[in-house]
């Protein structure tokens, strides 16, 4: 088993300060309004278990009544979709010698912080995968423009796939390659076709929060295709059993400590949002 030893740590004579490890690719969806988050996943569940993800249904339109007539009671019901529990984790080991050799920096804290960040990134990846998954197809629509780089018309087509529910759109996730192409879109006089301000993209009168992340899906090929995700508020659910915590255990035989984290969670794309006929996720595919 790989173990963190003195040779793995930076010596003070070479570098005065320990630098926290950098994680490639910014978090894309975790923590945004596109995700309904809950830490109430029932205990005792294990990876691959199937559970029901519930939400409220709507009772419909108001009824017109004539004088002397009565309304018929309608109940507010709940519906549920099935999802699979995922189990992820990581384990690190560090010797007492390694800690002594790194008195200028705390490897315990560093490993703990990295494990917590790894759990957050695992949640985020699962949410991206859920938004991008084409099976099942419910709750999602694909606008395929894979023969060319992104265009203003392609952006409009993707946004308008939400129909008259565009005001419920929450975020658009761009890969940096696509983001660069969008920045280059100009009219005949050289003015930008798309406006950007305070992490908001304006497509005509429509303003959306944008997120730039190279965790956005890439379909490898010749050439590659890139998936830009447009997601409505609350279209995704993240359900986990608790806030990820690190568990420590001491190995008396080695005089070392183990640091581990286990998370059980569900990342789910709703097949239909309550009171909505439009998809919750739009996939725009371009070169």
Order of helices and strands: EEEEHHEHEHEEEEEEEEE
Question: At the first level of CATH, what is the class of the largest domain?
Answer: Alpha Beta
Q: Count the E strands.
A: 15
CATH homology-level superfamily of the largest domain? Major capsid protein gp5
Describe what is shown at a glance:
This protein has four helices and 15 strands. The chain is an alpha+beta fold.
Describe the model.
It is a single chain. With 287 residues, the protein is α+β, with helices and mostly antiparallel strands. It folds into two domains: 6-12 and 25-57 and 79-132 and 237-269, 2-Layer Sandwich (Major capsid protein gp5 fold); 140-236 and 276-286, hypothetical protein PF0899 fold. 17% of the residues lie in helices and 32% in strands. The chain has four helices and 15 strands. The protein has helices spanning 96-101, 107-132, 152-160, 176-183; strands at residues 35-38, 50-56, 78-84, 86-95, 140-144, 169-174, 195-197, 200-203, 206-212, 218-219, 225-232, 236-240, 247-251, 256-269, 281-286. The strands form three sheets. Strands 5, 6, 7, 8, 9, 10, 11 and 15 form an eight-stranded mixed beta sheet that branches. Strands 1, 4, 12, 13 and 14 form a five-stranded mixed beta sheet that branches. A hairpin with a 2-residue loop joins strand 7 and strand 8. It is flat. The two termini are 42 Å apart.
């Amino acid at each position: 088993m790989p173990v963190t030893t003195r040779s793995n740590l930076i010596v003070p004579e070479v570098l005065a300060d320990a630098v926290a490890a950098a994680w490639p690719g910014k978090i894309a969806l975790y923590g945004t309004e596109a995700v309904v988050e809950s830490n109430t996943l029932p205990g005792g569940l294990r990876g691959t278990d199937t559970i029901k993800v519930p939400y409220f249904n709507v009772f419909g339109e108001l009824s017109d009544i004539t004088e002397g007539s009565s309304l018929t009671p309608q109940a507010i019901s709940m519906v549920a979709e099935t999802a699979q529990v995922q189990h992820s984790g990581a384990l690190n080991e560090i010797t007492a010698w390694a800690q002594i050799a790194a008195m200028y920096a705390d490897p315990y804290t560093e490993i703990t912080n990295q494990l917590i960040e790894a759990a957050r990134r695992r949640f985020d990846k699962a949410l991206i995968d859920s938004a991008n998954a084409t099976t099942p197809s419910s709750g999602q629509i694909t606008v395929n423009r894979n023969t060319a780089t992104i265009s203003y018309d392609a952006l409009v087509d993707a946004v308008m796939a939400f129909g008259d529910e565009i005001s419920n759109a929450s975020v658009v996730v761009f890969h940096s390659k696509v983001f660069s192409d969008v920045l280059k879109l100009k009219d005949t006089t050289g003015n930008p076709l798309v406006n950007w301000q305070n992490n908001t993209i304006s497509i005509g009168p429509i303003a959306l929060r944008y997120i730039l992340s190279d965790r956005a899906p890439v379909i490898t090929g010749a050439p590659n295709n890139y998936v830009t995700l447009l997601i409505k508020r609350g279209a995704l659910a993240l359900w986990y059993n608790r806030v990820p915590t690190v568990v420590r255990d001491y190995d008396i035989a080695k005089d070392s400590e183990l640091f581990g984290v286990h998370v059980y969670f569900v990342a789910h794309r709703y097949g239909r949002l309550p009171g909505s006929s439009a998809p919750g996720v739009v996939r725009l595919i371009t070169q």
